[in-house]
Amino acid sequence: MLSDKTGSWTPVALSADLPAGTVMPARTPAGRIALWRSQSGRAAASADRCPHRGMRLSHGFVRGEALSCIYHGWSYARTGNCLRIPAHPGLAPPETIRVETHEVEECGGVIWVAVGVPTAQPPGLEGVAPLRSLTAHAAVAAIETAAGAKAGAGGLVWQAQDAQQIRLLLAPQGDEQTLIHVLLDDNSSLSQRIAASRAVERLRRTAEDLQTKGIAP
Amino acid sequence: MKLYDYVLSPSCYKVRLMAALTRVKLEIRAVDFHPGAEHRGPELMALNPAGSIPILEDGDLILSESAAMLTYLAANAGPEWLGSGAPEETARIQQWLSFAHRLTASLGGARLHEMLLRPGDIGALQAQGIAALRELEAGLVEQGLRGMRFIASDQPTIADIACFPYVALAPDGGIPLAPYPAIRLWSRAIRGLDNFIEMPGIPRLHELKPEPHVEPGEV
């Protein structure tokens, strides 16, 4: 989604779901990433594979400004260079030991990861605030059918029954699964937020039914 | 207090974890659950005719339901784990304590099938497990909107301990946890509690340990 000639931005997670000092797995159209946030609060994305033995870095841990592999503790900076190899404490790791990284932008409480080299910024999301993310076992087309609306550059605007307008950012995860980021008017009350969270559960059920029955376009 | 225990059982771990968190010392009696099926033998069947573990024995009190064991440990040594007594919170605790049985049946069933080759319909067990995880995720999202970090309250209760182990071990049954951001944060909050203990497959938060420093030449 949101592609231009040279690259695109994928919404991978909500800022609130990645506190400082944590790492989580995520997916972009280019593959699996380890998405992490340093102690000082900077988000970063690397390929989800340690160049040493291939362990997923999303199983690792964050100390200070580095992401460490759970297997042998090799640690990496947000720019991808290896900072430390615990079994060789005297060694300054050579520049050639690197993990592939992706550009990260955070705006409006959403974390976007670049695939390729986008020329534009991720879309602005004025007036809405993120509520939650959830995964549906349904393709984007089934979710669009269930919502009765198409996704555009700023996501899909869904007029839920008995609830206010809900904005959805849809990120395909492969295997006919879709990560859905739910955004609401930033003045919503607690009861409106809870109602919207429940409404999106219903939308997911409808979309998954459509997917299973094969009646999505 | 004597716990008839199997180290790989998530239900036994609930009781060990609750005891650790409330600083109660348990006498552990290891049971040869697999492959010996000792829990079905005469000695343990005499204590618990249901033929399940854990069993908690304290004087002439014999408990065979893990939720009752969590309640007993908390009532003895950590009443704050039973909640504040507010009606809504009390109801939520009971709701998630009962819900925990569904985690045992679905996620636990899938795990037994994958790890100990128990017969069963793995597809159905995994689908029920995903449905249960989604229910817990939705509950935690709503708690988060209310400004609460745990499933029944802003403080951890026995309901969190009842749900945590089978959820944390869901990947053993082939059910990934990546799709559940609220469960990830909740699991971190539990693993970061003072006096938290591990079980095989549920590690402590590695980053809470000090970084080891080895001088060149020591390796």
Structure in words:
The complex is a heterodimer of chains A (217) and B (219). Chain A folds into two domains: 2-116, 3-layer Sandwich (Rieske Iron-sulfur Protein), CATH 2.102.10; 128-213, Alpha-Beta Plaits, CATH 3.30.70. In chain A, 15% of the residues lie in helices and 38% in strands. Chain A has two helices and 15 strands. Chain A has helices at residues 140-147, 190-213; strands spanning 7-14, 22-28, 31-37, 43-47, 61-63, 66-68, 75-76, 82-84, 101-102, 104-107, 110-116, 128-136, 156-159, 165-174, 177-185. In chain A, the strands form four sheets. A four-stranded antiparallel β-sheet of chain A has the order 2-3-4-9, with no helix packed on it. In chain A, strands 5-6-7-8 form a four-stranded antiparallel β-sheet, with no helix packed on it. A four-stranded antiparallel β-sheet of chain A has the order 12-15-14-13, with helices on one face. In chain A, a hairpin with a 2-residue loop joins strand 14 and strand 15 (177-185). The longest helix of chain A has 24 residues, at 190-213. The two termini of chain A are 18 Å apart. With 219 residues, chain B is an alpha+beta fold. Chain B has two domains: 2-80, Glutaredoxin, CATH 3.40.30; 83-207, Glutathione S-transferase Yfyf (Class Pi), Chain A, domain 2. A four-stranded mixed β-sheet of chain B has the order 2-1-3-4, with helices on one face. In chain B, a hairpin with a 2-residue loop joins strand 3 and strand 4. In chain B, helix 4 (87-116) runs parallel beside helix 6. The longest helix of chain B is centred in the middle third of the chain and has 30 residues, at 87-116. Chain B is globular and about 50 Å long. The termini of chain B are far apart. The model of chain B has no long low-confidence stretch (mean pLDDT 96). At the A-B interface, strand 2, strand 5, strand 12 and helix 2 of A face helix 5 and helix 7 of B.
